[in-house]
Amino acid sequence: MTGSVAPFGDLTYQVVTFGCQMNKHDSERIEGMLEALGARPVGTAAEADIVVFMTCCVREAADVRLYGQVSTLKGEPLRADSPLGRRIVAIGGCIGQRDGRKLAEALPNVNVVFGTHNLRSLPGLLREALDRQEPAVEVLEASDGFPTDLPASREHAWSAWLPIAIGCDNFCSYCIVPYVRGREKSRPFEDIAADAAAYRAEGVKEITLLGQNVNSYGRDLYGKPRFAELLAAVADTGIERLRFATSHPKDITDEVIGAFGTLENLMPALHLPVQSGSDRILTAMNRGYSRERYLSIVGKLRAARPDIALSTDIIVGFPGETEEDFQQTFDLVREVGYHQVFTFIYSKRPGTPAALLDDPTPREVIQERFDRLVDLVQDNAYRANQPDVGTVTDVLFEGPSKRDGSLLAGRSPKNQTVHAPLPAGTAATDFEGVIAPVRIDEAKTWYLRGTLLA
Ligand code: SAH
Ligand code: SF4
Ligand code: F3S
What we know:
By secondary structure, the protein is α/β, with parallel strands linked by helices. The protein has 3 domains: about 10-140, Rossmann fold (3-Layer(aba) Sandwich), CATH 3.40.50; about 145-385, tm_1862 like domain (pyruvate-formate lyase- activating enzyme, Alpha-Beta Horseshoe), CATH 3.80.30; about 390-450, CATH 2.40.50.140. It contains 14 helices and 19 strands. The protein has a 6-stranded parallel β-sheet with strand order 2-1-3-4-5-6, sandwiched between helices. It has a 5-stranded mixed barrel with strand order 15-16-17-19-18. A 3-stranded parallel β-sheet has the order 7-10-11, with helices on both faces. Helix 10 (about 255-260) runs parallel beside helix 12 (about 290-305) and helix 13 (about 325-335) packs parallel to helix 14. The longest helix has 23 residues, at about 365-385. The protein is globular, with a radius of gyration of 23 Å. The model is unreliable at about 1-5 (pLDDT under 50). S-adenosyl-L-homocysteine binds near residues 175, 212 and 273.
């Protein structure tokens, strides 16, 4: 960076984020860096001198949307008092990594392109684009270090994401992530434990450990996974709520499963992506587990923690999926009774092995399967929430409900959204980051409604 104190001092910025928690976390670091350099966040592109898109290419729809959104910015007027006289548009994240310079060629209003491995280059690239009239592009093949040493601007002071590993080595046959995030690289155990302790000391209530596959944490550094040990060490800081994502079923160990029964602050919620209930499709997806093994993991989790809330990801319409394969997925979803299922229609990603497979199944047939599954998912979610009615649960409040300002919104240990009327004489802001008991009066499909007890 150039030497002045606040090089972006009069500038405003907006970061637009797509995709997974990795991108959301990276965006927090970008916001932290820009703010450390003096830039000020604003809510709309029309007010922003610098717009950064953190992109996702896991499915085709995300690609198309990005190109549309960036082009639209050309028509956005600049803020009247813009010191730049033009808007700077930067593209990072997974499309930045994949397309590099091609992005700047395809979208003439793009000034900066960076990738997933070099967040820290962004300020220098912005400076370069400002100084010269041509796009500044830098995409690296491998990571230049963990973004954790960059300043962060967290969405909520009381909740923090803590990356424990970056990249992915699993190469599921449909997935682009290993190509845009690189090889799995774990952070040293001591660094993570120290960060967790620091978060705890600054009053953070909830830590979510992040990785594409947290269960294999440490394999590259220590020759064996050390995730169970890491969980115990982070829990030991006394943090009130501990969560993690994402957990690949093939690598989950009995120790990690057991932790749900022994670590009090490990929240009873787990996202365990199954993708399909058919062994034939699981093999074609290169997932590394069978339907039976997945169900046995679910059984062990429920034995360790009977009230655990499970969620999953499902891909419908993987090439060659038959009605019988789909039925096995449908039955598995019904059998497990998930609290939440993220359903996706298979999207061909050029460069992945599955992109070479032909699929004779008509689009309408896949859509019909998808719709059937979504109905089941909603039905399951509604049923899964019913046993909570009449119970008292601790809620970590986030502030007013987005839909109705007279309601407080927060999260239960099982990660359900909980609404409760704001007590008379209080403001929603009084409750931000506060954990308080709520009696659950009603359970809907996607939220619980209750009464604050304290
Ligand atoms: N590492 C995580 C999540 C990665 S992407 C994991 O292994 O679970 C998040 C989800 O997107 C995946 O779980 C999968 O369900 C979905 N997904 C990935 N590639 C896809 C594709 N080509 N088409 C449709 N859905 C896809
Ligand atoms: Fe993609 Fe599979 Fe890696 Fe998840 S584990 S990021 S689905 S390749
Ligand atoms: Fe998307 Fe990249 Fe995450 S492709 S899902 S933002 S790792």
